[in-house]
């Protein structure tokens, strides 16, 4: 049963927004607000707690900073789901990992373009500097919730058809198969943490400045030839990276 702001305390020295945040956090902890559940609107919460919407907005911002809720533009505010275990090994497949966790995977193609290979990408893909590459910017989701955003580079002309194949399938694995790479393995992985930049935060529905996990990797085909270099930025509160041995 919901408590009113009067039942919490108006004269105890604790700000109203803090009391609202604590009340909602308690409901998340007890499961009254389940993972994935949509919170009431700001107007409804303001009416429930007899405060103005600015006070509610500050309480929700605090919960977002703690990683307990997520505001999705145009859709509303949702309770964050439990972190998804994301194993990294020789065969790392986003779709398989998400499906195995009982969630629906999908990848959105944001942009794609041809570029001249900069030194870092050239080294990762074992091609000359300046060689033509296909660069993609993508967002990867589980049940519609963004888990990661990535930049992916593939050699041209070998993967000239990759972008439309990815846009149709929403899957790196299926797009590679459409380009003649039926299987691939992970050759290298590097992992670090940093703060999200504004563009990453927007794509991941994160509060600006939240921590992200950056996973840089290279995949090779059956002949050991590099086919894909990738830099994925994961929302740190939504995944638990598990490194295989």
From TrEMBL:
Organism: Methylobacterium aerolatum
SMART domains for the chain: HTH_GNTR, UTRA
Pfam families (UniProt xref): GntR, UTRA
InterPro entries: Bact_HTH_transcr_reg, Chorismate_lyase_/UTRA_dom_sf, CP_lyase_PhnF, Tscrpt_reg_HTH_GntR, UTRA, WH-like_DNA-bd_sf, WH_DNA-bd_sf
HTH gntR-type domain residues: 14-82
Keywords from the UniProt entry: DNA-binding, Transcription, Transcription regulation
Protein name as annotated: GntR family phosphonate transport system transcriptional regulator
